[in-house]
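Thread: quick sanity check before group meeting

JM: Hey all, I'm pulling together slides for Thursday and realized we never actually wrote out the predicted structure for the chain we discussed last week. Dropping the sequence here so it's in one place. If anyone has concerns about the input, flag it before I start.
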Amino acid sequence: MGEGSEHLRSSRLGALVFWGAWFVVPIAMLCVVAAVRGVYPFGAQSFLAEDLVYQYVDFFAWFKRVLAGQESVFYSTACGLGANTWGLYSYYLASPFNLLLPFFDETHLTLFVFVADALKLGCMQLAAMFYLRRRFGVGRGWSGVLALGYTWCLWTATNLRNPMWLDALILLPLLMWAVWELVRHGRWVPLCLLTTADIICCWYTAYMAVLFLILLAILEWWCAGCRDASGEHVPLWRLALRFARPMLVALVLCAWTFVPTVMAMLESGGVEETSLLGIIQGILGAGSPLGMAMKLFTTKPGCFVRGFVPALYDFLRPVPQFYCGVVLMGCFAGFYVSRHVTGRVKGGLGVLVAVMLASILLTPLQAIWCGFRAPTGFYSRVCVFVAPVLMWAAGWLWQAESGAPSGTSRLAGLLGSRVALGTVCAFVVADLTLGAALAWRTLYCGYSQEYHDGYVAQSAQQISDLEGLGGCTWRADRTFTRAGFAALNDEMGRGYMGISSYSSAHNQDALDFLSALGYSKPGQISVRYAAPVLSSDALLGVRYVCSQQPVAGETLLEDVSQVSGGSAYENPYALGLGYLVSGDATSAALEGGSPFERQNELASALVGHEVKLFRSAAATEALADEGTHAWDVTVPAGCLGYAYVDVPSGYVDGVMLDVDGVSQQEGWRFQQTLRPFSAVEGGEPGVHRVVMSGIDNKKAVPLEDASCAFYYLDLNALQSLTDELGARQATFDSFAGSGISGTVTADSDGWFMVSVPHEAGWTVTVNGAQVETRGAFGDALTLVPVAAGENRFEMTFVSPGFVPGCVVSAAGVLGLAAWAFWRRRRAGA
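JM (edit): ok, ran it. Output follows.
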């Protein structure tokens, strides 16, 4: 008895050491790669790269406040006027590893990302080993070696910048095992529960995983001779039914998050040209066979070859990440030359490989895998399934060779040798570590951790200084970004409200409204506050602007801290975030032909009478260099001039616009704005030179197709407008995603405008009674009915679909528990 217990304890300790060691191996490899490349926390370069810089780190900062109870998971007023954030949470932030965020302060969020990625790599390794051992019976040591090719394949090495996708790679080997259990033994509960977890962690990668699992189920069924473990023939239609049951039950179990996610994403809209239909129309309308081929294929032959060589990987090119290490790729080749793998199995895998290659290389098929839309960046997302396919082939090869009759397999002796295992293990670690280090050379460069930490500290201090000024509830924004052009979620990261926004989960009505006013290029999923617009800034409550250039018409705040050389300015005309408006706002639409005309329409609708904020400025063409257009624009005394470039759609890059010696690219994805002139005119009219030039790029707008409009802002008219609306402002007690409340006093029954989008999910009460709100300007703003006298209003938001989704999930859990109880009682009878 004692000896048996001691043996059991020793066996458990040995297993713990074995699994623990393999958990540490990929983490150690990450540390070595970071040290070799000089990446934080082992070097000066930040571990933040691509969208980790532009989006995710700010989302993590926001979610940290959500976990602390300081923000709502349902809504944020921080950027883009406001948005339902459940889609953002369920796509970017639902990983259970994010529960570690409270243990890291805001200055160490980069360290959190590194630690979370490291832990995910360790879990991926263990999951892959579990699959290889349970599905194919691969030996303990060899399972770790082969799993490393999965864990540290080129796709993983180049997508640590997308940490929300890594949870799917932990679950994928377990899902593959669950598919085998379903096909061979009819056990559907593991697949159901694992699919539920996958959807909860990230619905996007779960959708892709389900498509892959369908193909894998067919492969397993085919390789098993279309029979289950009992030898019974299983027709394909019955396999489909078997597979559908766990999928449908999984959707029920995760309805609490999936239903509000779907409803939130339907509100987000998208870019029409990226839809599957738009892709097919683009291919057919290419005009020539070469043009059609260029649109049909996702990559070029040279980039295709680069995908097999980590040293040639370049994230700026469409390079498919095929490389999974010499050993795993060698096993794939060995699978096809082995005499012990049947032709039926080889043929089945060949069909799967052909489908996956077509999905990687053909634009329409890639779009199907990516949610029926062409993905923007991070090519190739479908390559995430290359390593699982190779791992399946390696496992089958092991199973075939180790089970071959004695003396017929050349690999049998090698597989049983500890020396061979140690040698191959060392080679695999060195191979994959070197491959990752070479692939990182273009990923982690140009953004230092010291700069990032300095920016975060300066930004926090500036916001603190602005909050110390007091005053009404306000918005603030910056005319520059922390990195590149796409770091547009600084407001969420720092906890203040602004205009800029960039995420896959957004309110498209608000973004379209802001684009119509001239803040950013229409039809995008982002809006960039590139320049202050005194009039609409004032109406939307943008009181403060941080700019590295002097801001005409605004007051420099010398006592407020700078951020990256940018000083804070105050808009003297700025209103609060809510005030009484005319009834005309209930039916008004922005239909003007230019942003200037639409600004006039906005102002007129808010006060109920015509307002001419902007008037056309006199412009004469001036002598210009070849390849440029120039104008001399006259602005009346006491006014501020603006220029706006209008460009046709379908181009990636726009044109260069020089206004008073400041040159910026306009008419492209991240900037198409009303550009103010350098100063408000004094007692005399002023003349300003504006020069528009083309960009030497095939993707840029031809200069002859671009036009430039010139208007001036009448500051007296703006002052009269803000005086009229400012007399009817609300006093806010709170204005955040967790709730909006305050008081507003009206002389008569009317409408109170709150500058957040009107959408399902808001519950609004006035003086304790729930009221029916209305949308304004395409549902970009919310109108609340108020009565004469003082009105106490409260607004709370719960993501649409959350409550019914919770009811469905609760019913699903109870139903599944009842079924399990019934099965257990029947089995014991």
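AS: nice. The chain has 27 helices and 26 strands. The chain has a mean pLDDT of 91.
JM: adding both to the slides.
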